Amino acid sequence: MKNSLLQLLSIFTLSSALILQALCQGSSRNTTTTTYYVLNFGAVGDGSTDDTQVQLHLLFQAFEDAWNATCESRVGSPATMHVPSGSTFLLQPIVFAGPCNSDVNVLIDGTLIAPSDPSEWKCKDDTCSQWITFHNINNLLISGSGTINGQGAQWWDCKASVCVSLSLCIYTQFGGTGGINVRNSSCHIYVSSSTSEYIFFPTPLFLVIRSTFPPNNQCPVQLSCGTKATGFTISDSNNVYISDLTFMDSPKMHIALERSTWVRATNLTITAPENSPNTDGIHVQQSQNVFIEQTLIGTGDDCISIGDGSAYLKISGITCGPGHGISVGSLGFNGANNTVEHVYVSDVVFRGTSNGARIKTWQGGKGYATDITFQRITTFDSRYPIIIDQFYCEGNQKCTTQTSAVEVSNVRYIDIHGTSSGETAVKFACSETVSCTDVSMNDIDLTSNGTSNTTSSCQNVQGTQHEVFPRVPCLTSN
Ligand SMILES: *[C@@H]1O[C@H](CO)[C@@H](O)[C@H](O)[C@H]1NC(C)=O
Ligand SMILES: *[C@@H]1O[C@H](CO)[C@@H](O)[C@H](O)[C@H]1NC(C)=O
Ligand SMILES: *[C@@H]1O[C@H](CO)[C@@H](O)[C@H](O)[C@H]1NC(C)=O
Ligand SMILES: *[C@@H]1O[C@H](CO)[C@@H](O)[C@H](O)[C@H]1NC(C)=O
Ligand SMILES: *[C@@H]1O[C@H](CO)[C@@H](O)[C@H](O)[C@H]1NC(C)=O
Ligand SMILES: *[C@@H]1O[C@H](CO)[C@@H](O)[C@H](O)[C@H]1NC(C)=O
Ligand SMILES: *[C@@H]1O[C@H](CO)[C@@H](O)[C@H](O)[C@H]1NC(C)=O
């Protein structure tokens, strides 16, 4: 066990050197650098929501043109695309694609915003799965003091809308109050679920409607919220360094790292409201040698989620909350064969999160999650500071008992202290057929944030514990 940890650490040290080397190579080739300013390409930086189509088009074109000039540049390396401070740019979904002729710096000091109204998103093939994407680029540095704001509130509202049957439907037309997102069909309307009473102003009548919820939220007409977009995606790229930026209010996850290697994310701030659905901070999948450091994340879903194909991840110096914790998974959805290995999470503070160090897998999956370490973690008011859930089930999925499961093994918890907002501070819910093995806990102290005592719950988990409170009955003490 010690060996594998040492091995892991040496790989990380080696990898840091490689990244630095790779990032330096560009500038040592030619000290001349070239900067392309988006404003020089006709971008209108006023972020006005009533931009006409033409302006929007110009704006989109300006970013495309600036990117093309940057990416095709052979005049010195790196070539820089600069989004200046003091300006707000309304940006439609865009892909900044490589390969590029030289190393590329993207310096974002201004603010980028997405259209706030989902119907104003202009997506190719009507699938808005991504907003800003960097694809197929080697030696890419993205930094700056800027903000990337997905303005996702109306997407979240749509997802959270409930159907309401009206007792009175003589209206022909009405509007909502207080910015309620109203969609109607016949005598049914959809309203934001956070609203308890609905007051509408049909023209020319003033009318207060008291309404009932139809059974099972069944509306005769389905409300389609469309595909929500990931805010910022880096895909199929190598040697990527991303730092200093602020990300907020993405419709779906804020940052996705996909099919990439040697990615370092540092000094980022990622925020969204606690009740915004699926707004993970950073999601990693099919990527290796990923470093996430010194980053503040508070959203409505996982601060960091580690998906299929992730290996050699080092996550440290994270402040997480609100949110669902730092999660390996979910893995094995719909019988998928997923793997995650060599993950080292350290020096994390969880504040008011629903989970802390979490591993979640669906029943019926295949594959494994192995060699995972959580070390030097502090929790304040977390519901489940430590949790492995091999029975993960979400949304409307029918989660029937199944025999196969994603194997969870070789998991280490070291030096974890703090408080839990619930009684069960440690929860290991492992499958009967594929138990969790080689779980070790060392120096754990998790107390209640109130007056109750904390306990551990466990099933089908094997391993050892040393100086652990609350003691885990399934583990042998040593
Ligand atoms: C950018 O370059 C690509 C590839 O060369 C080309 O297909 C695209 O039309 C260019 N876009 C603009 C706005 O010039
Ligand atoms: C760097 O690139 C510029 C522009 O192509 C060129 O004039 C200059 O000679 C190059 N410098 C070196 C050290 O190669
Ligand atoms: C982190 O990012 C912020 C905001 O861009 C910046 O002001 C600060 O200097 C950065 N810190 C470090 C250590 O680079
Ligand atoms: C509600 O339905 C009426 C009649 O079909 C339609 O004219 C109106 O635009 C709809 N309102 C909204 C907010 O969709
Ligand atoms: C799952 O994928 C891994 C890695 O690709 C492979 O080694 C393993 O055989 C697969 N397992 C099953 C049950 O298909
Ligand atoms: C414990 O944490 C929960 C969740 O954050 C919070 O609602 C509750 O007020 C806390 N209890 C105390 C006594 O601080
Ligand atoms: C907490 O545990 C202690 C020691 O086992 C016991 O004396 C105390 O009554 C418990 N408190 C509660 C609220 O259960």
Write a brief structural summary.
The protein has helices at 2-29, 53-72, 153-160; strands spanning 34-37, 79-83, 88-90, 94-97, 104-108, 111-113, 130-135, 138-143, 147-149, 161-166, 183-185, 188-192, 198-200, 207-209, 211-212, 230-235, 238-243, 246-248, 255-258, 261-266, 269-271, 282-285, 288-298, 304-306, 310-320, 326-331, 337-351, 355-362, 366-382, 384-392, 407-420, 424-429, 436-448, 455-459, 461-469, 476-477.
Task: Please give a structural write-up.
- The protein is mainly beta.
- It has three helices and 36 strands.
- It has a 19-stranded parallel β-sheet that branches. An eleven-stranded parallel β-sheet has the order 4-7-16-19-22-24-26-28-30-32-34. The protein has a four-stranded antiparallel β-sheet with strand order 11-12-10-15.
- The longest helix has 28 residues, at 2-29.
- The chain is elongated and about 65 Å long.
- One 2-acetamido-2-deoxy-beta-D-glucopyranose binds at residues 173, 182-184.
